[in-house]
Structure of Ribosome biogenesis protein NOP53:
Amino acid sequence: GLSASEEAKVARAEGALGGPRKLRRRASAREADVFDLWAAPAQEAAKAATEREQAAASTVRRVAQNAPSSAPKTLHQKVSAAPAVLPAHEGQSMNPHGVAYEELACLAAAKELEREREVEAMDRQMRPLTHELRDALGAEATRDMDEEAKVQAYRELACPTAAAGAARAEAEAEEALRKGQAWMKSQAHRNKEQKRKRIEAKQAQAKAQKRLEKSVGDVGAILKEMKDREEWLKGRKEYKRSMRAKRKQLEETEGVVPKCRRIGRGKFAEEAMVVPDAEASAKGLRAMPLQGASAVRERISSIVRRGMLPAPVEASRGEVIRHKKNAGKLRRGRKFVSPLLRDQLGR
């Protein structure tokens, strides 16, 4: 047998045959730096395992986030054909012509009147009964009315005869109940009513059959009516196509966004046109500032107009309530869960 020192010498000789120690260290380091595409991702797996352990040890309920399985179909589609920068009106220049300035003022006033008319039309559509009463009785008379009084006033206004008849019938019913004059139908009266209904049904059926027999000779008129309707539908389709092309042209040239376009919860609303201050013209038109002009607002408006971002919602009380509800829902979703109940919730 070999002694311990001799075995150590043999081991050193075998190690020397494999190459120098520095070269072996460099080779092992180089192998560690090489990225293996088909190997298991060690860092991602370790991170996922750590997250699972933390989620299992946590007492807070967490909602899993669903990862998208495929790319959206509208990923590379342009929503709008509006230009990024819209040229300013001639009346907004530093030294505008009188006619151009007057045209700008009239255009801004027309847009403001149109916006007010749309708001009034929407309000009338949401509350038709109130607006009808306001037009007929005046705003002062309808201001202190409750819903019941409004319905009664509208009934008297729309159908006065029926309202009077209903009031008379109600009064007669109250009088009959007060006097105790209750009348019940007899069996003979019920039989007469059933017989009358059967006779009326047979007469209606005979009239329908007679009308059908007479309509057999009107085939030519029916075909002519169908042909006229087809021509009308064709003209309507052409009109819709022309209006669609006109809207697209206006969007490409002037940046006019269609009113039916909606991205997210809100629609794009064009800001009011900036009109230079006419009172500052005493010092010269070059000293006339543009009220409300801001590069940041103009860029944000351009981004929203082109459909790159959803339009900001209007700051209203309903929006505040919606945000409060969402915050409360999120807070209740992350409430504390007892470790004793966590296993039962996971089942």
User: Anything to note?
Assistant: The longest helix spans residues 219-254.
